[in-house]
Design goal:
Blueprint lengths: L1 H34 L1 E2 L15 E6 L5 E7 L9 E5 L3 E2 L5 H8 L4 E5 L13 H17 L7 E6 L1 H12 L4 E5 L5 H8 L5 H4 L6 H5 L6 E6 L7 H10 L5 E5 L7 H4 L2 H14 L1
Parallel strand pairs: 1-5, 4-6, 4-7, 7-8, 8-9, 9-10
Antiparallel strand pairs: 2-3, 3-6
Length: 277
C-alpha cells in the first residue's frame, strides 16, 4: 500500500508536467489562430454602410491588395485624417459606428482590414500587419493626408500596429485604446502556467516602442476591462515621452460600446487633435 502511494506521488507531478508540455506545444503551433480572430467574409460596399464613404484598395509592399473604406468628414472639415487600426477580431464593418462618429466631428476616416480579414488575401502576423498599416498610411498620403495631418487610432492589438507605424512615420498624434504593454505580457497574464515569452512569434512591444514616439498621446481604457488589464494601459500612458492624457471610461469592458465608439472616446480624439494641430 505504501509503495502504491509512493508511486502515485511520483506520477502526479509527472502527469502535470506532461499536460503543461502538451499545452505548450499546442500553443506554439496554434498561437496565431489564438491571437488573430478574423471575420473572413466579404464586407458590404462602403456607401451602403456610411454615407458618402468610398471603397478603396491598399497595396502592400509584399504584393497584397486589401479592402478599405475612406469616410469623408461631415460638416466643418478639419483637414485631418484618422487612420484606424483594428483589434484582433471582426472587420471594418464593426468599426463603422466609430467612423461615423469621427466623421461627424470633421475627420476623414480610413477603415481598413488586415490581411486575412474581411475577404482580404494573406495570413496575419506582426510583420504582415505592419506592412498593411504602411499601405494604409500611403493611401492617405495619396489622398492629401500626410502623417503630420493624421491621427493614428489603434484599438487593442491595433495599438501595437500603430505604435510601430508611428516609430517609422511620426503622426500628428497617437490615440491608443486599451493598449497592452506587450503581447508577451498580455499572454503571460492570461496563461501564467505556460512559458508564453519563450513561445511567442509575434511580440508587439508597445511599452518599449512608445518611449521613442515624441508626439501627443492619449490612452483610453475601461476600468472593467478583463481582456487587457487596466494597469498595462496606464503603464503605456506613463511611458510616453510627452505627458499622455489617460481617459478612464468608468464601468466599461473591453468590447463595450462606450469603449469602442462612445462619446468619451470621440471627445478624447477631438481633444487630442486640437492639442496636436
Amino acid at each position: 500500500m505504501a509503495a502504491r502511494r509512493g508511486r502515485r506521488r511520483v506520477l502526479v507531478p509527472i502527469a502535470a508536467v506532461i499536460v503543461v508540455a502538451l499545452l505548450g506545444v499546442c500553443m506554439w503551433s496554434l498561437q496565431r489562430s489564438l491571437v488573430y480572430l478574423p471575420a473572413r467574409g466579404d464586407v458590404p460596399s462602403a456607401g451602403s454602410v456610411l454615407h458618402g464613404a468610398e471603397d478603396v484598395r491598399l497595396r502592400t509592399s509584399d504584393g497584397l491588395e486589401l479592402g478599405a473604406w475612406l469616410v469623408p468628414p461631415r460638416g466643418a472639415d478639419r483637414d485631418t485624417a484618422v487612420l484606424v487600426a483594428n483589434g484582433n477580431a471582426g472587420n471594418r464593418l464593426t468599426r463603422a459606428p466609430l467612423a461615423r462618429a469621427l466623421a461627424g466631428e470633421g475627420f476623414t476616416v480610413l477603415l481598413f482590414d488586415y490581411r486575412g480579414y474581411g475577404g482580404n488575401p494573406g495570413l496575419p502576423s506582426e510583420e504582415g500587419l505592419a506592412a498593411d498599416a504602411r499601405a494604409a498610411a500611403d493611401l492617405l498620403v495619396a489622398r492629401g493626408h500626410p502623417p503630420e495631418r493624421t491621427v493614428y487610432f489603434g484599438e487593442s492589438l491595433g495599438t501595437g500596429v500603430v505604435t510601430a507605424l508611428a516609430a517609422e512615420r511620426p503622426p500628428a498624434a497617437l490615440l491608443l485604446r486599451s493598449p497592452f504593454t506587450s503581447l508577451a505580457d498580455l499572454g503571460a497574464h492570461h496563461y501564467p502556467f505556460l512559458p508564453v515569452r519563450a513561445l511567442l512569434w509575434d511580440r508587439y512591444p508597445v511599452l518599449d516602442t512608445i518611449g521613442r514616439i515624441d508626439r501627443p498621446v492619449t490612452v483610453v481604457l475601461g476600468d472593467a476591462d478583463t481582456i487587457v488589464p487596466p494597469r498595462q494601459s496606464l503603464a503605456v500612458a506613463a511611458a510616453a515621452p510627452r505627458s499622455a492624457e489617460p481617459v478612464v471610461v468608468a464601468g466599461a469592458g473591453h468590447n463595450d460600446a462606450a469603449l469602442t465608439h462612445g462619446s468619451e472616446v470621440v471627445a478624447a480624439t477631438v481633444r487630442l487633435a486640437d492639442r496636436a494641430l
